[in-house]
Structures are given as structure tokens and as C-alpha cells.
Amino acid sequence: MSSLFHILFRRLRSPLIVLVAVYSISILGFVLIPGVDDQGAPWDMSFFHAFYFVSFMATTIGFGEIPYAFTDTQRFWALITMYATVVAWLYCIGMLLSIFQDAVFRQQLRINSFRRRVGNIREPFYIVCGYGDTGTQLTRSLTNEHILCVVIDIDENRITELEGDDFKSPVFALCADASQSEYLEMAGVTHRWCQGMVTLANDDTVNLTVAIVAQLLNPDLRLIARAETPEAEANILSFGANEVINPFETFASRLALAIRSPSLYCLYDWMTGITHQVMKEPPDLEPGLWIISGFGRFGNSLYEHLDDEDVELRVIESDRSIRDLPAGTVIGRATEAATLRKAGIKEAVGIIAGTNVDANNLSILMTAFEENPDLFRVARQNEDKNAHLFEAAHLNMVMQRGSVISNTIFALIKTPLLGDFLRIVSRFKNDRANELVSSIIGVVENDIPELWELSINAEQTPALHKVLQNQQLLVSDILYGIKTVEEGSTNYQKKSLPLFLRRGDGNVILPEGNRFIKEGDRYLMCGSTAARDCMIHSLKNINLLEYILTGEDKPTGWVLRKLWERRHNKYNSKINVVDDLMIEESQSDNDLDNENTDKNIADKADNQLLDEKKQLENQKKKHPEDYLPVKDINKED
Amino acid sequence: MNSEKVIFAFFIVLALTLNFGFFLGGMDNASHHNIYELYAALVVSLISTILKVGDRTHLGAVFLATSLVADLQLIAAAVVWGYTEHVSGTSLNGETLSIVVSLSGGALLANIISVILLVSETITVRR
Q1: Is the confidence metric ipTM above 0.90 for this complex?
Q2: Min CA distance, B53 vs chain A (Å)?
């Protein structure tokens, strides 16, 4: 505010001095010039009357010659001063208007209002640096979930574009250089409600600077950064960023995944996709020759990923000067049929058009279709605005760079555990991946699947927290849905599936049913929307939770509850017996799932009840690779 | 020599001298206090305020504050004078004049502080 005030007054200084000078001279003139009253007697204007007259004259209100008609000398002076004062006012107002149109001043105004609005935020929000294709889509997805966003971009056109867009929740935008700490602080990096920051600039150095500055300002901030080179990726990760997304790498690995393990590809697509869509059928891909056209950064990482999967590959590249072209590369334009034929289009099973020009990609795929209609055609879509063109081309798969990245980031924001889960799952072999997918489909059936995160603590799950104080609960008691036991067989309603458990530093994929739920656990859950709502509600409402657990409807009031508890005081001991039985039953299963189990958890938490002999056996069976620290990957799979 | 500095110092000192000139004399003696002198003191004080606004330094802020105090005191004095003459209908007597003079005395004090600041700033700037 102070700087606005300073700019304003610095510029208004000379107009204001002119105004004061003109006023004071005019007033003095009227006081000194002798006049007459209505009787013709000599009368001198006082300062009071003179100020009154000059005030209404200068502002062109003009009440007339007050209090007595003027003499000619007074009129002569009035004639001079009325022009002088009006000119002085015009000078003042003109200067004021020009200040308000001044770019610096307007930027300052915008900064001030931005700072004020961000400062007043009282709900969780995210900061998005960079409002390109990816940033736009990410902001849209976040606001659709009613998550508040603060956007910074250095390009004024993009900010203007943003201001014209409609969002479901407010988006505060500022046109500024995000790598300056001042602006980042303004955007709320140190704000109490700031949940995290996503930096999506096209330039790696900008992302790096933003990440460093943000990290220095607020070391606890959750940071998701984009980096185009592996060096920058490692650099940003080295000082504590939570996630780094390499667009080419993400994009290429996703495509490689589709070819290697279609079911995992579907899982990825669904988990990181925008909600409200049923899981798609996995694409059916045959082994054989794949043609990659374009060997830029994208083509390069695609080649590496597919080569790792032992896919037979051939590259078409028009630029002969590119280094490290793989053996057997066809030099020429992929848009021409002759080049495609040379690359073996007739025998190929698939073609990936991966140049950075959308028109070329479309043309390549059209030509390829004429040569070989059975081809599996994959296109890289560079620009958001060409979406309908790619749709019209009826391709087998379109990878839209912006949306692949923005969806991934969005999923990471919504369910922070997802990143680690997907990283571990991506190394699964096909069989195990299929198993995982089918178990998810088994839970979700034909409903629209949802992902959500459960943190077992007093704030988010107060009811469960309270229950856990008195008794121990198993994963199968609560997290599989509403349990009903009929004639010895257990059924679940509103089914859900815990996909992933984070306990301390340990990770568990698909936590087993016989695992104890502990305070501080974080679960990544999957199920239908109804199941999610039911679970979240029941873990907050103690009455509902107790009803689900015991099947008994306890009274809600304090007096009635005390009476009820007195009558049922044997209840607790009964429950404990049941629990022990279940644990004994499930001990034999424990070994089967150890493959997924983290050492820490297995050791510290769950095996308390196992006898020592079994514990020793477990230790032997476990491979060291299975005990994952957070960011490691299960290499055996 | 910086002409801007000259103008700045000129108005600040002039505000003090005019104010002092008006203040000088018996508290309730109307012949010792000229209305034109009060008018001039007020106008010069306003101009010096405008000159001081827009300085981001700490000293500038204190300059502005003292000047605003002087303005306020002088405007109050002028309003008291104008009100007794024109609204309450009584001519200026010793009682109201002493109010006007004491108000201008307050403004004088503020103006003195302003000049002290100016002088100390000038002394600290070594060339």
C-alpha cells in the first residue's frame, strides 16, 4: 500500500503545489480588493467568504456573486482566477488519470490487490507457476474440485486469458516473475493454508530457481516441479522437492507402459485421469515391429523405454545431423509414403507419430493408414487446441502432453500417496498387474471408481481414533466396506479396497486384511463414490462407526449411553476374544503376503502376536529388496 | 547546489518564520496578530507538506508527520477564527484569540522540529 501512496504523491506533487498556489493567490486577491455591500457601503471580503467563493468558482459550481454583488475590480480579478483555478484543477485531474493508466502504477495496484486477496485466503490452496497448456488444464481440474488456486505467470497475455475464463472456485492470478522470492512470498508460499506448489515453466532453470526459492522460504512445502532434462530433475530432487515430472519421460514411459502392460496402462490412465469415467478396456497390442517417427527429446526417451521392453523398433528421422541415431534409422520425411515403406510399414504392427508439429503427426498417421490399415496408430498431440482434429482422425491412442502431465500432477495433489504407489506398481510384471487391476475392478464393478486417502488421526477420522483407544481393529474390519457376517461367511457392502499403506517410512501395497490399523497410518483407498462417502462419514461419526462394528445401535445421549454401557459392560471383553481368534486364523496367511510387506511394519507392528519361531521364519523368507524405503522401487517385480 | 533542495528548505524555513511571526506578541492582543500572516503561514505549510509527501525514507516520514501536525494546528486556528467571526456572530475577543494563538504555537513547535530535522540532515550529509 505504501508504495502505491508514494507513487501517487510523487507524481501529484507539482499539480498539487500549483493548485494550492493558485487558490491562495485567488483568495488573497479577493480579500485585498475592496468591495461594496448591498447598501453601497465599503465592505471587505473576509478570508472565510473569499475561500467560499473561490471554492465554488474553481470547481465550476458557480453560485453567483455571494454575499454581495461584485464591483468591477472584483469581477476583473474573478475573471483571471476562474481560468487559473480551472486550469489548475484540470492539470491535477489529468495527472491523476494518467497515473492510473500508468503501467507501473497499475501493476502495483494489481500486486496490492493480489497480495490482499491471497492474504485473506482461509482454505487450503495450491500455487501454480506457469499457465501454459499444462498449467491451464491443471488449474481447471483443481478448481473443478473446488480447490483454490493461485497462479503466477510472467506472460501478461496468459494472465489476461485466465481472467477471462470461468472457474468453479476463485483463481488469483499475478503477472510476475515467479523466480523472484518477493512474488513467491506474495503468492503465499509461506501462507498457513498453502498446501503445495506446482512449477510448470517451460524453462528448466526457471523451475529450478522457483523450486530453490520456495524451498528456502518454506522447507515444509510440498513441491511438484517440471523438469525437461534428467540433470535438472536430479538437481531439483536433490534439495527436497517431493515430485519432479519430466514431460517427455512421463509421456514416453506411459506409452511404453501401454505397449508392455496394457492393463497397467489402463490403471495409470484411470488413476491419474479426471474422475467420472468408467475404467477403459485395455488396448490389445500385438508384438512386432514398431515405427517411431521423430527422434527429438520425446522420440529419444520413447526409444529408450521401448528398447528396454525388447520391442522391435525402427526410427524415421528427417534430420540427418542428430547425434546417436539408433542403427537402422531411416532418414527422410515420415510424411511421405516412400519413407514409410522403406521403414517397413507393411510388416509393422504400430506407428508412433512423435514429432513436435501436430500437422506432421496427423499427416504421418494418415499416410500410414493408407499403406497399412491394420496399424495401431499412436499420436503425440502437442497443442491443446488441436484436440478435435485428433479426435476426428480416429486414432488408436492419442497422447496429449499437457493433459498427461496435468492429470498426473492433479492426481498427486488429490492423493499424495498415489505417486509412490504408481512408482512401485509400474515395476510389476504383467500377471501381477492384471491381478491388481482385476481386484480393483472386483471392488468397483461397474461404478465410477474413486481414489481417496485416509489418514488415521484425531482430526480426519475422529471416530476411528476414539475406537482405537479402546480396542484394536483390523484392516478387514473397516476398510473393505461394511462388514456383515451371515452363517459364517463374511460379506461386504459398499466395497472398497485399500491399495496402499504408508506407516512411518514403510510402504505396503494392498495391505492385508489381518493387519492392525494403527494411529498415524495413511491409506490410499479405491472404491465407488458411494463407498467413499459412506466410509468418510462413518469414520467421523462415532455412533455410525460403532453400529457398523458391532451391529448394535448405541444410544447417542450421554445419560442413556452411560446406562447402556453399565448394562453391557461385558461387551468389551467379548470383542477382544473375537479379535484374538481372527488373528490366529489369519496368521497362516501372513507369510503369503510378506512379499509386499515392509520390514519396519512387519517387525514393529503386526508380528507382535506371532510367536518367535514364526518371526524367524519370516525374516528368512524376506528378500532385502522387498523392504522398501519410501522412494525405492521393488526391483524384483 | 541542488535547486530542489533550495526550494524544499525555503518552504520549510518560511513556514517556520511565518508561523513565528504570527505567534509573536501578547496572547490576547488582537493588534499583535495579523490574519494575513496566519493565512500565509497556512498556505506555506500546506505547500511544504506536499513537498514532503512521497519520500520513502524514515526521515522523510518524520518530516511529513511534523508537517501534517503543523497543518492541522493551523487549520484548526483558522477555523476557530472564521467560526467566531462569521458563525457565532461575535467579533474576535481576547478569549478566542488566545485559542487561535496557542494553536499556532503548537504548529510553531512542529515547524521547529521540522527545521531541526532539516538542519541535522544537512549536517550529516558530507561532501
Answers
A1: no
A2: 6
User: Which amino acid, residue A60?
Assistant: T
CA–CA separation, A324 vs A489, rounded Å?
Answer: 62
Asked if B51 is an interface residue toward chain A (Cβ–Cβ < 8 A), one would say yes
Quick one: how far is CA A421 from the chain centroid? 18
Query: How many angstroms away from the CA of B30 is the closest CA of chain A?
Result: 16
In which element (H, E) is residue B92 found? none
Q: In angstroms, rounded to a whole number, what is the distance separating the alpha carbons of residues A206 and A225?
A: 10
Distance of alpha carbon A494 from alpha carbon A483, whole angstroms: 9
| Interface probe, candidates A16, A47, A92, chain B, greatest B C-beta count within 10 A | A47
Tell me how crowded residue B37 is: count the other CB atoms within 10 A of its CB: 17
- Biggest CA pair distance of chain A: 125
User: Which DSSP state fits A60?
Assistant: T
DSSP secondary structure letters along A175-186: ES-TTSHHHHHH
Neighbour tally for B74: CB within 10 Å = 30
With a cut of 60, say whether residue A610 has pLDDT above it: no
**Residue written as cell 531439483?**
A236
* pLDDT tens digits for range A44-70: 898 999 999 999 999 888 888 888 999
Does A18 have pLDDT greater than 60? yes
Q: How many residues are listed for chain B in this entry?
A: 127
Residue A540 backbone dihedrals phi, psi, to 5 degrees: -100, -25
Residue A521 φ/ψ, nearest 5 degrees: -65, 150
**A214 with A197: CB under 8 angstroms?**
yes
